[in-house]
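[Meeting: bench + compute handoff]

Bench side (C.D.) handed over the final construct sequence. Compute side (W.E.) agreed to return the predicted structure before the next meeting so the bench team could plan truncations. Sequence as handed over:
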Amino acid sequence: MASVPKLLLLSLLFFLSYRSHIAHAGDDGSHRVLLSIGGSLRTKSVCSESKAVQSSSSGATTVPLHHRHGPCSTLPTKKMPTLEERLHRDQLRAAYIQRKFSGGVKGGRGAGDVQQSDATVPTTLGTSLDTLEYLITVRLGSPGKSQTMLIDTGSDVSWVQCKPCSQCHSQVDPLFDPSSSSTYSPFSCSSAACAQLGQEGNGCSSSQCQYTVTYGDGSSTTGTYSSDTLALGSNTVRKFQFGCSNVESGFSDQTDGLMGLGGGAQSLASQTAGTFGTAFSYCLPPTPSSSGFLTLGAGTSGFVKTPMLRSSQVPTFYGVSIQAIRVGGRQLSIPTSVFSAGTIMDSGTVLTRLPPTAYSALSSAFKAGMKQYPPAPPSGILDTCFDFSGQSSVSIPTVALVFSGGAVVNLDANGIMLQTSSSILCLAFAANSDDSSLGIIGNVQQRTFEVLYDVGGGAVGFKAGAC
C-alpha cells in the first residue's frame, strides 16, 4: 500500500492539516481513509503555493486565492478566531440564509424556484465579513491600486472602502481614492445600473446613485455605486460596477471589501460573463497554509457534474439536489424525499447543513465505523466527536455525496472531520432544525475540489485534488 501523508495537528489553526485520497477496504469491506498522526507543528507555517498559479489564457483568467488567516494572506493579523466564535458566526449565517427560503429549491433539469418565507428580509444573504474565509487580491482604478477582497457566492454587490470615509474599519491596503483614478465614474441616479440595484438602492446624493447593503447581523455598507477598471491578473475588466463605501458598521475585518460571486446581475461572475464566459470555478485549499485559485472563464470538461438549480426570487444562490449519502462505500437508507427542500452551494458557510433525518443516518453510520476509537463530548453543534489521544494513525470511513444526474463526490479527508482540540476530531456536518429547511454545502466539504459554476450550461461540477 502507498504511504499515507502525515497528519499535522496544527496547534494554532482550526482546520486539520492532512490530505489523503487513499481508500482501502476495511475488514467489513467498507471503504476507509488512513491517516497518520504527528505532533503539533510549533514552527512558523510556510505558505505553499497552489498548483494553479496566477495566469491568463484565451478567454480565461486565474488568480490565487488564500485563507484569510493563513501565512499566504496579506492581512497583518493571522490569529484564527476560536472554534466557538467561528461556529457561532456560521450558525448565524446558515440560519439567515434559510430564512430566505420556505419551499427550497424546486424543479429539475436546471430550472428551480425558491419561495421567500419573509419578504422583509434584505436580499443580501451573507451575515458579516467575519463569516467569510477566503480572499483574492485585485487592482482597481487607473493606475491600479491593490485591493484585498473576500469572495462570497452568497453576495452579488461588490464593494471596497473609499475616500473620503466617515466611518470605516482599518484595512490592510490604503483606502481606495476615486479622485486618483482617471477611469472612475459614479453612476447617475437615472442609470440602468442604479435601477438594477433594486432593494439595495439607497436613493440619490448630488445626482449620484447610492447603494446600501445590510447583512443579517445588522452590519452594513453604504456609499456611491460606481464603475472603474478592474485588473484580474494580466486581464482587465472595464467599467466594473462596485460600491464605493463611505460608511460601514459592524465589521472588525482588515480586508478592503467584498467580491460578490453570486448569480445576480451585480456580481463579478455576471458582469464578466461577456468577457470570460458564463462559467467560473474556484478551489478552496485544504489548509490555511496552502493556496487555492479563482478562475473566470473556467473550462467545463473533466468535472463530475450535477444540474444547477436557480431561484427566480433569490437569484444569488446556486442550487443542487442531493439524492443520497454514502459512508464507507455503502449508501445510507435515506429516502430521496428527505432532501426535497433543496440545497445550495455556499463559499461563506463553514459546515454543511443537512436535513436532521439525513444527518442522523450519517452520524450513526459514521459512529458505527469508528467503534475502535473512544467518543468525545460534543463541541457546540458538532456532536459526533472522537478522542484520538495516544494514536499514531487512525482509519475513518469515506463519505460521499450523491447528486442528481448520478454525480458522486467522494469528499477529501479534510472535508469529513474537523479538529476541535489537539486530540479531538468531529464530523464536519450539522443538522438543520427540521427536514423542510434548506440544505447548505459548506466550504469545508468543498476543500481541494475545483468547484465549477457553469451558469450558461446549467451545471455545478466537482474535480478532485485540484489544490
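W.E. noted at the follow-up: The first strand starts at residue 6 and ends at 9. C.D. will use this when planning the next construct.
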